[in-house]
Structures are given as C-alpha cells and as structure tokens.
Amino acid sequence: MHLIQSTVGRKILMAVTGLLLVGFVTIHLLGNLSVFAGPDGINAYAVKLHSLGALVWVFRAAILALFVVHITFGVMLSMENSTATPSNYAIKSRMKTTFSSESMLYTGLILLAFLIYHLLHFTVQITNPEISAGTLPLDAAMRPDVFSMMVLSFQKVFISLVYIVGMIALFLHLSHGLSSFVQTFGLNNGPSLEKVTLGGKLVAVGFLLAYVAIPVLILARFVNI
Amino acid sequence: MDLTLHVWRQSGPKDKGKLETYPAKGISPDMSFLEMLDEVNEELIKTGKSPIVFDHDCREGICGMCSQTINGKAHGGQDRTTVCQLHMRSFKDGDEIFIEPWRARAFPVIKDLIVDRTALDTIMQAGGYTSCHTGGVPDGNAHPIGKPVADYAMDAAECIGCGACVAGCPNSSAMLFTSAKVAQLAVLPQGKHEAMARVMNMTDTMQAAGFGNCTNHLECEASCPKGVSVKFIAKLNREYMKALVS
Lengths: 225, 246
Ligand code: HEM
Ligand code: SF4
Ligand code: FES
Fold this sequence. Notes:
With 225 residues, chain A is mainly alpha-helical. Chain A is built from 8 helices and no strands. Chain B has 246 residues and is α+β, with helices and mostly antiparallel strands.
C-alpha cells in the first residue's frame, strides 16, 4: 500500500494518529479534572468508566493501535531522517527550527516511558500497592477510592515529579505537533500558518497547566483527603 | 576589511575533508561574497596553494548554482539572497566566517564547496514537466488563467533549484523544492491532467534519492533565497491526499 511506504503517506498517518491521541488526551484530562470535585467527582467517574464493561477494552485496544502506528512510523521516519543527514555542519544555526520540533522523537519516547509508568502506577497498581485503589478501603459510597489513591500518590514528591516531567514532555511534543498536523493536512494558505503555530503553542500550554495542576495542587496540600 | 575564513576543503568525494583557515585581507564592503572568495583564491594561487573550488554561474541570483553554507546558514541566511548576491557589507571587519558545502546524503561533495545536485534533477525527471504535443506556438489566450492562479504558479516557479532548502533542513528533505513544482503545475490547466501521477512519482523519487522526510520544521522556507513558501508543501500534501483517494 502506498500510504504506509510513502514519505507523505506516513507523515499523514502520524498526523491522523497524533490528532486522535490529542482527542484521547483531552477526554482523559476532562475526566481527571474531576479530582477537584472530591471523591464524589473522580470516584463516580471511575465507576461510570468501568461500567462500560467490554467497551472499555474496545477503547483500550483502539488507543493501543493508535500508539503502535504513531510510534512505529515516528521512529521509522526519524531514523530515515538521520541517515539522510550524515555529516554534520561544523557550525549550524537554526533560523526557524524550534527545540520542540527537533526533539519530537525524544519527547515522544519520554511520553512512552511515562505512559508505561503511569499504567503500572494507576491501572495495574503495582508501583505503590499500599496506596492503590485496590488495597485502600472503599469510600463512603462503597466505590473504589480513586480519589485517595491520587491524593496519597501525589503527596509523594517523587511521583509528582514523574508526572510533571511527563507533562512537560507532552507540552513540548504538542507545541510542535499541533501546528505540524495542520500543515500535514494541507490546511495552510501561507499567512494562516503563523496564527496556527501560535494557537498550537497556546493549546499546548493549556494542556500543561491543566494537567500539572493536579499533582501541584495536591502537593501543595490544596487538595486533601 | 580584514576577515578570517574557515573553509571546508575536500580534495574529492572519497576524501574526509576538513576546515582550513585563511586570512582575507583588504576586502571591500562592496564586494559580493563570491568576489571576496575570488580575491582569496588569487592569493592562494600566488602562494602556490590550490584555490577554493565553489559553484557559481550567473552571479545575479537567478541560476541557483552558488551553494555555500555560511556561518551555519544556507546562502548566509540573509532574506531572499543567494551567496552571489550577499555583500561583504553585511559582515564586520575582523569577523570569522565559516564556509561549508551543502550537507546532505543526497548531495555528495565533489570537491571543496561543490556538491552533486543531480538528485534534484532526478526528482524533476519524475514529473516536473507537462506532456504536451509540440508544434506551433499556441495562441496566447488559448488557456485563460485567472490572475490569482497565475500569481500563485509564478510564486512557486520562483524556485531556482539551488538546494538551500535541503541544506537548511535538519532532515535533509527536498520537500520545498518538490512541492514548488507540484503546486505550480497542479494549478495550471496544462499541468492538471498529470497532477496525480506527478505528486506520487515526484515524492517517491525524492524518497528514493536519499532525501529525508518532512517534519514541518519550516527551516526550508527560512533558508530559501527566493522566498518559496511552505504553503506549497501544504498544497503538495493536499494533492497527495487527492491522489490517494481517487
Ligand atoms: C499522548 C501521546 C501523544 C500525542 C498526543 C502525540 C501527538 C502528536 C502529534 C499531533 C504530532 C504531529 C503530527 C504531524 O507532524 O503532523 C506528533 C508527531 C510525532 N510524534 Fe507524537 N504523540 C504522542 C506520543 C508519541 C510517542 C509515544 C512517540 C514515540 C516515539 C511519538 C513520536 C512522534 C514523532 C517522532 C513525531 C514527529 C513527526 C513530525 O514531526 O512530523 N509521539 N505527535
Ligand atoms: S525551494 Fe528555494 S531553497 Fe529550495 S531549491 Fe528552490 S530556490 Fe532553492
Ligand atoms: S551564481 Fe547564479 S544564483 Fe548565485
């Protein structure tokens, strides 16, 4: 198939999967922010999510597929690009290239590492079993106590730092990624690109602030059990 | 003005090459960058050294032959300026200047600052033309083309094929070069018929020639001495998607 071999086709696949992952990251954020509504927020949300039953697994499989496609082509394209650029300039000055655009592979790989930790921490619950929802007593409404798990976790500086670093990687990745996919989809008439680039960076800042608010406000004891 | 040059010297494709340092003394600010190199070469020849080999032809910014990365920027990085049109007044007395060839796997160094840009011709051969019957000169108004379309095509046709976009690109992608031709021909009645095959063949050929993949760093646009816009890459992407679904 031309799409998965072509230089443009694979870029489009990166953009489509990247955009869908942004959709996931958005929904996930909205769900997580319910932690600020206390146990009745996030614990109820968690119960609702798990009541979807088989649908949860359909969702997980879809997200896994998105990641596999995105990462496979991301690594493949990056490797090809470094072979295409063998000998480096003694002096190279960048006029338009940004730190975030040049570090896409690395911020992506940090995200992947973060993701694995995140799943082990909150989904499989094996990194800190003593404060996982699986071992904590049920909450007042007899629901698994996700709220306490989050609060007790983020009270630990190490865990909070891991999440903050992960979210900085997401911020850098999206600072380039959001305007990049607009260009990849061909939605640039010249003058619009500058605004799109700025808009992409602002949305990336928005994601950073909203996500990081969770560990930071818990660490600052702003949210407590 | 007196300058110190650090110039890439490489005796041939197999040689490893290295930077050599030369003084450039008594340079007039009104000289072009290439005239300055001519002066330095005169001195090198007088002292029995081999002159610095570099590409050039028109020296008026239209042929696309001159190709030097100056202080890490293709063509020196001045807005819409080729090396031949870069003047020494944009440097200061006492400056150190690094001069290197275009660097990309698809552009092997032939000697010193000259690289082989045949790969760009290969991309052109894959679709940078329209197949039409030759014969008598067609009537001037046989194909009415609106002013905005004509302007758009002309902006894309400004590309002089110098390869600065590749030299500047962190991925050594020739996407700006390729897209300029794809976009130019896709909007014109003469080029529309073959638009789909063209975008496929030209991008596949670019890839096969060893250029990298575009990741929208936009460094090409900043490096381009003709101000070719990355909006043409967006157009290429649209043309590709059209070709894919049809
Ligand atoms: C939450 C997870 C992620 C999201 C939301 C995301 C989103 C995006 C977006 C929107 C793009 C721009 C696509 C384009 O250029 O048009 C992109 C590009 C990229 N992503 Fe991700 N990504 C994620 C995870 C990852 C991971 C885990 C990797 C691991 C290698 C990765 C590697 C890359 C690379 C190398 C690019 C560069 C492609 C380019 O610049 O054109 N991403 N990503
Ligand atoms: S697009 Fe610009 S930089 Fe690239 S080859 Fe054409 S004129 Fe040179
Ligand atoms: S020598 Fe012709 S463009 Fe510079």
